[in-house]
Design goal:
mainly alpha; 65% helix; 0% strand
Length: 96
């Protein structure tokens, strides 16, 4: 009966794959971190904010509520926040 060796090539390739996946998760986590920071800064506060630069303040009436741009910015921020939380937990389990 020929069995593959318990060490050697299979162990090395597994370590290389895990190192690659860990590096990939860290890169994705950093991108999500920067993206979430930018999205939060784009939200308008009490005095306007950076979202006015990209068309968030083009509404002529305050009776309509938030504009389409602000709603889409909110949705995108929530999605990136959830992905950031998932990547945080994933990195916690992978690196522990």
């Amino acid at each position: 009966m020929d069995r593959p060796p318990t060490g050697g090539v299979f162990n090395v390739s597994k370590r290389i794959l895990m190192g690659f996946l860990t590096a990939l998760f860290i890169i994705v986590h950093i991108i999500l971190c920067i993206g979430l920071t930018v999205l939060v800064l784009l939200h308008s506060g009490k005095g306007g904010g950076l979202s006015d630069v990209f068309g968030g303040g083009m509404s002529t009436s305050n009776l309509t509520g938030s504009t389409v741009v602000e709603r889409n910015l909110d949705r995108l921020t929530v999605i990136v926040g959830i992905l950031f939380a998932i990547s945080t937990f994933t990195l916690t389990f992978v690196l522990s």
